[in-house]
Amino acid sequence: METTQFSLYSTSFNNINEFEKLRKDLVTLGKDHKELANAVGDLHGKHHTVSTKVNQLELEVDRLTRAGITNNMVILGLPTMKGENTTDLVRKVAASVGCELSEDAIQDARRLNSKGKNSASTSTAPIKVTFTEEQFKEDLFAQKKNHGQLLPSAVDAKFAAFKNRVVLRDEMTSFGMNLLKEAREAEYLVDFKFIWPGRNGAVLVKKSENSSVHVIRSSVDLQKLKQQTSKRPLNSSVCSSEDSSPVIDRNKRVKNQHQ
Hints:
The chain is of the alpha+beta class and 259 residues long. The protein contains six helices and seven strands, in the order H-E-H-E-E-H-H-E-H-E-E-E-H. The chain starts with a helix and ends in a 31-residue tail after the last helix.
């Protein structure tokens, strides 16, 4: 009997020791987990800080880049004709919306023909216009907005067969083009039917003809939109006018960045 009791006591003592060892191991594991969580949180905070600074730097570089092309405009939707004078075409666009340009208003006007594209894709190649002063560009934008939709036939009778719209927009920087591409390819914007470039480097998106316009200026705005589409739109402004920029219908899957 005594032997049995001693055996039970010894087993119980060993179990207590094992339990205490297990408890200490769990405490140590808990401390290690807390330290790891703190380290991960610290790294996340540093990553967020770096990402914020990078985003601010990108926006500042883009602002400076846009400042260097502030006199530039891109006109889309005008058919290419053999022997055309692009400067005259720009003047006709201005005249068709009631904008009077002085003789020295246009410094340069040329087609943006992409290398490797066939003749069909360049039949309405965009025209890049450089004005001698930014105000000339802004006057044309304002008159176009007041005029509303503009067809090629209103610019020149020889374009009567073309039914597409003529649209005006600022020349885009590489940052702006990449932001537009990112917005078009974002899976979480699949329900947004229209995506197009706005004024001053912004990208504009909206779900339908009558829905609110969301203004995108960076990848951060895209992430905010991803989280807030069911709440309220980002702040919009005069730069969201559809009259001054080509609206991109996602259903048509337009791939040419100049269309």
